[in-house]
Automatic annotation (TrEMBL):
Pathway(s) it belongs to: One-carbon metabolism; tetrahydrofolate interconversion
Protein name as it appears in the record: Bifunctional protein FolD
Catalysis performed (reactions): (6R)-5,10-methylene-5,6,7,8-tetrahydrofolate + NADP(+) = (6R)-5,10-methenyltetrahydrofolate + NADPH; (6R)-5,10-methenyltetrahydrofolate + H2O = (6R)-10-formyltetrahydrofolate + H(+)
Assembly and oligomerization: Homodimer.
HAMAP family assigned to the protein according to its UniProt record, in alphabetical order: THF_DHG_CYH (MF_01576)
Annotated positions binding NADP(+): 165-167, 235
Database matches in Gene3D superfamilies: Leucine Dehydrogenase, chain A, domain 1, NAD(P)-binding Rossmann-like Domain
Residues in Tetrahydrofolate dehydrogenase/cyclohydrolase catalytic domain copies: 5-120
Cited PROSITE patterns: THF_DHG_CYH_1, THF_DHG_CYH_2
A single cellular component GO annotation: cytosol
SUPFAM superfamilies: Aminoacid dehydrogenase-like, N-terminal domain (SSF53223), NAD(P)-binding Rossmann-fold domains (SSF51735)
Encoding gene (name): folD
Amino acid sequence: MAILIDGKLTSEQIKTEIAARVAEIKAEGGKIPHLAAILVGNDGASQTYVGAKVKACEQVGFQSTLVRLDAAVSEAELLQVVEDINTNPEIDGLIVQLPLPKHISVQKVTDKIKPEKDVDGFTPTNVGRMTLGWPAYVAATPYGIVELLKRYKIETAGKHCVVIGRSHIVGSPMSILMARNEYPGNCTVTLTHSRTQNLPEITKTADILIVAIGKPEFVTAEMVKEGAVVIDVGIHRVDDASKKSGFRLLGDVKFDEVEAKASAITPVPGGVGPMTIASLLFNTLLAAERKIF
Ligand code: GUN
């Protein structure tokens, strides 16, 4: 049986550590970390995610501000809201929940966020700094995975790490982090994607397999080497009449059959997902304490 890499438990531990630091800051009369989130429109998943982020702020003793804007808000108005937060000394970290409505340029909005407050790690400055190995805000999902590998003491040096998916948010930064000359890293990395040929041949050689392809149960047992460490970034709601909620959650990995072969694996839910919020809180703490810039 594989070791279950418990992201829910680990994220709770990280939140406890952050809450302890907030208590110290309060005792020292320092500034309480303050996260601002901008949510545009009524996308259901985005509302759930932002709600969870605001709730997590409360849990650790941070201040939070949620700015809700109508889906019809103009790009110029949104840019002005970002600028107001950029210059507001009370606010340490800012996230703009994605996706944005089609009439708004994600690129323009991302580029408007002051890198010092970019706790999502999405701005060119932070992506560039992360790539160079400089102090940087690292995007929440890759950072959460790095933290899981560390806390579960997964050996990485010299291993073959295969990443499936090349998104700016997960696959691409993950590939850079796993190749870095530090722990966890020092892997030989193969970054694969939808156009990769002979994918199962490649994944079968992975000691560490990180799956962020966005397709439910895409990775099956035949694609996995015996003893591999498998990290599943996917999360999909599928209808299931036998559940009270009417749905169940699936990852990008066919969990039951892959678990039988892996040495360690993240479940869905309760794996990478909860770690992303812990990472965001950690970045916001770094921002409040001016640890990166
Ligand atoms: N949408 C999906 N993931 C994320 C994330 O990590 N940050 C933001 N701002 N939006 C997202």
